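Dear Dr. V.,

Thank you for agreeing to look over these. As mentioned in my earlier message, I'm a first-year student in the group and I'm still getting used to reading structure tokens, so any feedback on how I've presented them would be very welcome. I ran two proteins. I've put each sequence directly above its structure. The first is here:
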Amino acid sequence: MSYVTVGQENGQNIDLYFEDHGSGQPVVLIHGFPLNGHSWERQEAALLDAGHRVITYDRRGFGASSKPSSGYDYDTFTADLHALLTHLDVEGATLVGFSMGTGEVTRYIAQHGTERVRKAVLMGPIPPYLLKTDDNPEGVDGSVFEGIKAAIRQDRAAYLTEFLQNFYNADALLGTRVSEEVLRMSWNVAARASARATLACVDTWLTDFRADVDAFARTHVPTLIIHGDADRILPFDATAARLPALIPGSELVVLKDGPHNILWTFAEEVNAALLSFLRK
């Protein structure tokens, strides 16, 4: 198993677990909440078959990475990503984020530019700003997130069951695009995440990325955005629908009836769009 040390807590290393497979043009896959790097299995297979080097890792607090008590903010997450890319000396990479992972992609390019990056992909994105405020009326009311935090505090296991139902739109797609076994697998992964990280990340979702998106856009990095129009976790109108106007030249692919986790339920469509973008 491969790890990179990104910090310390009480004299103990904070380590990120990563996997680095294949050769060719590197693609770095950054997972969503509350899963881990293995959630990209259907994309990793397609990318390896197409001749790419594929790097996945588990965000701190999740998967096989360390589970410290702090650092669940995008400045730290981005520093973790930079430490990994530096450790592997990655150049010319395509950064691909899903859900929470799109925050790392956006802030990384805003802060570090394109020295190590050639393209960016935002799937089910969280930017530009999820919280509804006076100057961000397209966002989601803050009471929604207070309710999520209360549910996690009261019964994290029950919350995860409900969350994953909406993560996959199981009422509409169970038995066709997702199975009971996949739901159970996802619950098992999510349940093993740090309870502290699971709760802390809810506030992290409300990061204001508008300045980051502006800086990102000024790099002119080729960008692909993919989103399901039936997303119940990160509503399309509050997120991806706003990005083409903010990132000129970006390409938007909308998957009809796609839930939040399009990586599994619409894997063929996602992979086709991703591989086509990488070939350009």
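The second protein is here, in the same arrangement:
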Amino acid sequence: MSKVQNSVQVLLVSDLEISKAFYRDVLECEVTEWWAVRDEFGLGFKLIEANHPDDITPNTPGKGQDKSWDTYAYVETHIELDELYKQLKDRGAKINQVPEIYDFEWGSWKEFSIKDPDNYVIAFGSGKKSD
């Protein structure tokens, strides 16, 4: 069976240049004509300018959810998550959710989220306190 190596999220954006600047300057992605990728496609987006502003539709919360995400990315440890939060905040990210810890039978989960210029929510989470 063939193995999928990476995936990217396709986002319709209102202004391609504004979005490219956000993904480059805030998320520290390598940005090309269409792509915004970070960490060797660990986080990847294909940015396409929308024909009409009504075409841009960030996700709404699903059944039983109190928040929504458009992209969810993972980091190894809570320490790395805290470092990433600080880096993104220092780079001017619009914070949607500050880091929160959730305790489960199997351990703890920590996450935070930011919003891009079109209000797409990009969340980051970790299930491991430390190495």
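From my reading of the second output: The domain at 9-51+67-126 is CATH 3.10.180.10 (2,3-Dihydroxybiphenyl 1,2-Dioxygenase; domain 1). The longest strand covers residues 94-104. Does that match how you would interpret it?

Kind regards,
E.
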